[in-house]
Design brief:
The protein has 6 helices and 2 strands, in the order ααααββαα. A two-stranded antiparallel ribbon has the order 1-2.
Amino acid sequence: MDEEALAELAEELRQTIGDLVRAVRVVDTMPAGEAAALGFLDRDGPLTTSDLAHRRRVTHQSAAKSVKELVNAGLVRTELHPSDGRKLLLHVTDTGRARLRLERARRSRALATALQDTFSPEEQGQLHDCVVLLSRLTAHLTGR
């Protein structure tokens, strides 16, 4: 594939994956920022609000607003940072993990239903192969 065709494929892939993510998020019952913050805390462990802002690529104020809502809802708890008493570490609570599992399950069910309604068994197999490739691409881009 020449450079121009590869650039076109990259743009089409970027747009399609973005559209897919947005389409699946239609079933979400919590704001995207709060779900993202919970996801980072669940995957990465305790973080500060600044850490969350950096990971989400948002302002500190935006992250702080999400954190406030999550704490008020009992989905996140705070504790003093062990090496800097001016900061708080944020921990996802058991209630927060349960809520996150519910959101993820809702997305997965919606996507599974769409896969079943849209693709033949052969196409589902092709898509499975594509997911393996996309996972490898993601690992390359993230260094994981």
